[in-house]
Protein backbone atom coordinates (compact mmCIF):
# COMPACT_ATOMS: atom_id res chain seq x y z
CA UNK A 1 0.00 0.00 0.00
CA UNK A 2 1.45 3.36 -1.02
CA UNK A 3 1.76 6.22 1.46
CA UNK A 4 -1.50 8.23 1.75
CA UNK A 5 -1.53 11.51 -0.17
CA UNK A 6 -2.39 14.79 1.48
CA UNK A 7 -2.91 18.51 0.91
CA UNK A 8 0.48 20.20 0.52
CA UNK A 9 -0.34 23.68 -0.81
CA UNK A 10 -3.17 26.20 -0.58
CA UNK A 11 -3.93 28.85 -3.18
CA UNK A 12 -6.09 31.95 -3.09
CA UNK A 13 -7.61 33.25 -6.31
CA UNK A 14 -8.72 36.81 -5.62
CA UNK A 15 -9.81 40.06 -7.20
CA UNK A 16 -7.32 42.26 -5.30
CA UNK A 17 -3.99 40.61 -4.47
CA UNK A 18 -2.55 43.68 -2.77
CA UNK A 19 -5.45 44.03 -0.33
CA UNK A 20 -5.58 40.26 0.29
CA UNK A 21 -1.84 40.15 1.05
CA UNK A 22 -2.26 42.87 3.66
CA UNK A 23 -5.32 41.20 5.16
CA UNK A 24 -3.87 37.70 5.62
CA UNK A 25 -0.49 38.96 6.79
CA UNK A 26 -2.28 40.94 9.50
CA UNK A 27 -4.79 38.24 10.47
CA UNK A 28 -2.79 35.00 10.14
CA UNK A 29 0.76 36.31 10.44
CA UNK A 30 2.07 35.20 7.05
CA UNK A 31 4.98 36.89 5.40
CA UNK A 32 4.76 37.30 1.64
CA UNK A 33 7.26 36.66 -1.10
CA UNK A 34 7.46 36.96 -4.87
CA UNK A 35 7.03 33.62 -6.62
CA UNK A 36 5.99 34.87 -10.02
CA UNK A 37 7.38 35.71 -13.41
CA UNK A 38 6.99 38.95 -15.39
CA UNK A 39 4.09 37.38 -17.32
CA UNK A 40 2.51 35.53 -14.40
CA UNK A 41 2.62 37.37 -11.04
CA UNK A 42 2.34 35.09 -8.01
CA UNK A 43 2.55 35.92 -4.30
CA UNK A 44 3.88 33.35 -1.85
CA UNK A 45 2.52 33.00 1.70
CA UNK A 46 5.36 32.11 4.05
CA UNK A 47 5.53 30.54 7.52
CA UNK A 48 9.01 30.79 9.03
CA UNK A 49 10.35 31.48 5.49
CA UNK A 50 8.72 28.25 4.30
CA UNK A 51 6.08 28.53 1.59
CA UNK A 52 2.73 26.98 2.54
CA UNK A 53 0.58 28.61 -0.11
CA UNK A 54 0.22 31.34 -2.65
CA UNK A 55 -2.05 33.81 -4.33
CA UNK A 56 -2.84 35.02 -7.81
CA UNK A 57 -5.34 37.34 -9.42
CA UNK A 58 -8.55 35.92 -10.82
CA UNK A 59 -8.31 36.20 -14.61
CA UNK A 60 -10.79 38.64 -16.14
CA UNK A 61 -12.31 35.90 -18.27
CA UNK A 62 -12.98 33.84 -15.14
CA UNK A 63 -14.70 36.79 -13.46
CA UNK A 64 -16.76 37.37 -16.59
CA UNK A 65 -17.95 33.77 -16.29
CA UNK A 66 -19.03 34.28 -12.70
CA UNK A 67 -15.94 33.10 -10.80
CA UNK A 68 -15.57 34.58 -7.32
CA UNK A 69 -12.58 34.76 -4.94
CA UNK A 70 -11.81 31.55 -3.09
CA UNK A 71 -9.27 29.09 -1.78
CA UNK A 72 -8.31 25.79 -3.39
CA UNK A 73 -6.14 22.99 -1.99
CA UNK A 74 -3.38 21.11 -3.83
CA UNK A 75 -2.93 17.36 -3.20
CA UNK A 76 0.44 15.88 -4.11
CA UNK A 77 0.36 12.81 -6.40
CA UNK A 78 2.91 10.60 -8.14
CA UNK A 79 1.64 11.06 -11.71
CA UNK A 80 -0.80 13.84 -12.61
CA UNK A 81 -2.01 12.37 -15.92
CA UNK A 82 -2.60 8.95 -14.41
CA UNK A 83 -4.38 10.49 -11.44
CA UNK A 84 -6.74 12.39 -13.74
CA UNK A 85 -7.86 9.04 -15.16
CA UNK A 86 -8.31 7.70 -11.62
CA UNK A 87 -10.41 10.73 -10.64
CA UNK A 88 -12.72 10.20 -13.60
CA UNK A 89 -12.99 6.45 -13.02
CA UNK A 90 -13.94 7.15 -9.37
CA UNK A 91 -16.79 9.47 -10.39
CA UNK A 92 -15.02 12.83 -10.34
CA UNK A 93 -14.57 15.37 -13.12
CA UNK A 94 -11.69 17.06 -14.92
CA UNK A 95 -12.07 20.86 -14.76
CA UNK A 96 -8.73 21.87 -16.31
CA UNK A 97 -6.51 19.69 -18.43
CA UNK A 98 -3.05 18.80 -17.08
CA UNK A 99 -0.60 21.65 -17.61
CA UNK A 100 2.93 22.61 -16.60
CA UNK A 101 4.44 25.53 -14.75
CA UNK A 102 7.90 25.05 -16.28
CA UNK A 103 10.53 24.06 -13.78
CA UNK A 104 8.06 24.05 -10.89
CA UNK A 105 5.16 21.59 -11.23
CA UNK A 106 2.61 19.77 -13.35
CA UNK A 107 -1.01 20.11 -12.26
CA UNK A 108 -4.67 19.54 -13.13
CA UNK A 109 -7.86 20.94 -11.62
CA UNK A 110 -10.46 18.32 -10.78
CA UNK A 111 -13.67 17.93 -8.76
CA UNK A 112 -15.12 15.17 -6.59
CA UNK A 113 -18.50 13.55 -7.42
CA UNK A 114 -20.44 16.35 -5.69
CA UNK A 115 -18.47 19.10 -7.45
CA UNK A 116 -15.96 20.24 -4.80
CA UNK A 117 -12.85 21.39 -6.68
CA UNK A 118 -9.22 20.69 -5.81
CA UNK A 119 -5.88 20.50 -7.59
CA UNK A 120 -3.66 17.46 -8.06
CA UNK A 121 0.00 18.20 -8.69
CA UNK A 122 3.53 16.87 -8.82
CA UNK A 123 6.39 19.22 -8.08
CA UNK A 124 9.70 19.05 -9.87
CA UNK A 125 11.80 19.77 -6.80
CA UNK A 126 11.27 16.52 -4.90
CA UNK A 127 9.42 16.15 -1.57
CA UNK A 128 8.09 19.39 -0.08
CA UNK A 129 9.19 20.24 3.45
CA UNK A 130 6.43 21.42 5.77
CA UNK A 131 6.46 23.53 8.96
CA UNK A 132 5.61 21.63 12.15
CA UNK A 133 1.87 20.93 12.49
CA UNK A 134 0.11 23.52 14.62
CA UNK A 135 2.60 26.27 13.83
CA UNK A 136 0.85 29.62 13.42
CA UNK A 137 -0.09 30.07 9.78
CA UNK A 138 -0.17 26.40 8.86
CA UNK A 139 -3.43 24.65 7.97
CA UNK A 140 -4.75 22.80 11.01
CA UNK A 141 -7.92 21.30 9.54
CA UNK A 142 -9.44 20.47 6.15
CA UNK A 143 -13.24 20.41 5.98
CA UNK A 144 -15.23 19.16 3.03
CA UNK A 145 -18.70 20.68 2.72
CA UNK A 146 -19.98 18.40 0.02
CA UNK A 147 -22.56 15.82 -0.93
CA UNK A 148 -23.24 12.38 0.52
CA UNK A 149 -20.48 11.62 3.03
CA UNK A 150 -20.29 7.93 2.18
CA UNK A 151 -19.82 8.69 -1.51
CA UNK A 152 -17.23 11.37 -0.77
CA UNK A 153 -15.21 9.21 1.57
CA UNK A 154 -15.18 6.31 -0.90
CA UNK A 155 -13.88 8.67 -3.60
CA UNK A 156 -11.05 10.22 -1.60
CA UNK A 157 -10.10 6.97 0.12
CA UNK A 158 -9.81 5.16 -3.21
CA UNK A 159 -7.65 7.90 -4.71
CA UNK A 160 -5.47 8.99 -1.82
CA UNK A 161 -5.55 6.24 0.80
CA UNK A 162 -7.39 8.27 3.44
CA UNK A 163 -8.84 6.32 6.36
CA UNK A 164 -11.80 6.91 8.65
CA UNK A 165 -11.30 8.34 12.12
CA UNK A 166 -14.17 9.28 14.46
CA UNK A 167 -17.68 9.91 13.14
CA UNK A 168 -19.69 12.54 15.03
CA UNK A 169 -23.49 12.52 14.94
CA UNK A 170 -24.84 15.81 13.59
CA UNK A 171 -28.50 14.79 13.91
CA UNK A 172 -31.05 14.07 11.21
CA UNK A 173 -29.00 11.09 10.11
CA UNK A 174 -26.01 13.22 9.12
CA UNK A 175 -22.43 12.64 10.30
CA UNK A 176 -19.24 14.64 10.58
CA UNK A 177 -16.73 12.03 9.39
CA UNK A 178 -13.14 12.64 10.44
CA UNK A 179 -10.41 11.30 8.17
CA UNK A 180 -6.68 10.65 8.47
CA UNK A 181 -3.90 10.62 5.90
CA UNK A 182 -1.39 8.32 7.52
CA UNK A 183 -1.57 9.52 11.14
CA UNK A 184 -3.92 11.58 13.28
CA UNK A 185 -7.08 13.06 11.79
CA UNK A 186 -6.38 16.00 9.50
CA UNK A 187 -9.92 16.92 8.52
CA UNK A 188 -13.53 15.91 8.16
CA UNK A 189 -16.32 15.52 5.64
CA UNK A 190 -19.94 16.53 6.01
CA UNK A 191 -22.97 17.18 3.84
CA UNK A 192 -22.94 20.91 3.22
CA UNK A 193 -25.28 22.89 5.43
CA UNK A 194 -25.33 26.17 3.48
CA UNK A 195 -27.33 25.56 0.31
CA UNK A 196 -26.30 28.99 -0.98
CA UNK A 197 -22.71 27.79 -1.23
CA UNK A 198 -21.70 25.06 -3.64
CA UNK A 199 -19.69 22.01 -2.54
CA UNK A 200 -16.24 23.15 -1.41
CA UNK A 201 -13.24 22.56 0.81
CA UNK A 202 -12.76 24.95 3.74
CA UNK A 203 -9.31 25.40 5.26
CA UNK A 204 -8.65 26.29 8.93
CA UNK A 205 -5.49 28.33 9.49
CA UNK A 206 -3.77 28.00 12.88
CA UNK A 207 -3.51 31.08 15.10
CA UNK A 208 -2.20 31.49 18.65
CA UNK A 209 -5.18 33.43 20.03
CA UNK A 210 -8.60 33.09 18.41
CA UNK A 211 -10.07 36.24 20.01
CA UNK A 212 -7.14 38.42 18.98
CA UNK A 213 -7.37 37.00 15.46
CA UNK A 214 -11.10 37.77 15.33
CA UNK A 215 -10.34 41.37 16.21
CA UNK A 216 -7.72 41.54 13.45
CA UNK A 217 -10.28 40.31 10.89
CA UNK A 218 -12.50 43.30 11.67
CA UNK A 219 -9.57 45.72 11.64
CA UNK A 220 -8.83 44.81 8.01
CA UNK A 221 -12.39 44.76 6.70
CA UNK A 222 -13.22 41.05 6.92
CA UNK A 223 -16.21 39.53 8.68
CA UNK A 224 -16.78 36.58 11.01
CA UNK A 225 -19.69 34.44 9.81
CA UNK A 226 -19.69 31.74 12.51
CA UNK A 227 -18.16 31.24 15.96
CA UNK A 228 -16.19 31.14 18.04
CA UNK A 229 -17.11 27.52 18.78
CA UNK A 230 -15.17 25.17 21.03
CA UNK A 231 -13.95 21.91 19.50
CA UNK A 232 -12.14 18.89 20.97
CA UNK A 233 -8.56 19.48 22.08
CA UNK A 234 -9.35 22.73 23.91
CA UNK A 235 -9.35 24.67 20.64
CA UNK A 236 -11.76 27.22 19.23
CA UNK A 237 -12.79 27.81 15.62
CA UNK A 238 -14.33 30.59 13.60
CA UNK A 239 -15.42 30.85 9.99
CA UNK A 240 -15.02 34.11 8.11
CA UNK A 241 -14.92 36.01 4.84
CA UNK A 242 -12.00 38.12 3.70
CA UNK A 243 -12.71 41.60 2.24
CA UNK A 244 -12.91 40.19 -1.29
CA UNK A 245 -15.46 37.53 -0.25
CA UNK A 246 -13.29 34.39 -0.03
CA UNK A 247 -14.27 31.94 2.73
CA UNK A 248 -11.66 30.81 5.25
CA UNK A 249 -11.53 29.61 8.84
CA UNK A 250 -9.24 29.86 11.86
CA UNK A 251 -8.45 27.47 14.69
CA UNK A 252 -6.63 28.36 17.89
CA UNK A 253 -6.65 28.60 21.67
CA UNK A 254 -8.58 31.10 23.77
CA UNK A 255 -6.09 32.96 25.92
Automatic annotation (TrEMBL):
UniProt keyword terms in alphabetical order: Dioxygenase, Oxidoreductase
Boundaries of every VOC domain copy: 6-123, 138-253
InterPro entries, per the entry: Anthracycline_SecMetBiosynth, Glyas_Bleomycin-R_OHBP_Dase, Glyas_Fos-R_dOase_dom, VOC_core
Keyword NAD attached: no
Domain of life: Bacteria
Protein name per Swiss-Prot or TrEMBL: Glyoxalase/bleomycin resistance protein/dioxygenase
PROSITE patterns: VOC (PS51819)
CDD domains xrefs: SgaA_N_like
Recorded GO MF terms: dioxygenase activity
Gene3D superfamilies hit by this protein: 2,3-Dihydroxybiphenyl 1,2-Dioxygenase, domain 1 (3.10.180.10)
The species this protein was found in: Parvibaculum lavamentivorans (strain DS-1 / DSM 13023 / NCIMB 13966)
